[in-house]
Amino acid sequence: MCDLSLDGVAQGGCSFDWDVADPEASLVDLADRLCEGWLHEEVWGGWPMCPNHPTRPMWADVGEGGRTIWACEADPADAIEIGQLGV
Ligand SMILES: [Zn+2]
Questions:
Q1: Can you list the alpha helix ranges (DSSP code H) found in the chain?
Q2: How many angstroms is it from 72 CA to the middle of ligand 1?
Q3: How far is the CA of 62 from the centre of ligand 1 (A)?
Q4: Which residues are within 5 Å of ligand 1 (an ion), measured at CB?
Q5: What pTM was estimated for this model as a whole?
C-alpha cells in the first residue's frame, strides 16, 4: 500500500507492489501512479514540468542504460534522472 500526503494533507493511497527483481520498472510505475493519481490534479499544469519547455509535463520512463528518468515529449535530450530535478 502506498499512502500519499501533500503539504501534510492525506490524499489517499493505492495498492503498489515493489518488484525487487526490476527496481527501475517499479520506480517508473510508482512515479507514474503518483503523477496520474495526484500530482497532475493537485499541481496546476502538472508535475514535474520540463525546465526547457515550461508548458509540458514530463513522464517517468526507463531510459538508456536502465536509468530511471523524467522524459520530455518535446526533446529527448531534456531527460533528467528521477530525483535530480531539484524542484
Ligand atoms: Zn523539454
A1: 23-34, 40-42
A2: 5
A3: 16
A4: 50, 52-53, 72, 74-75, 78
A5: 0.78
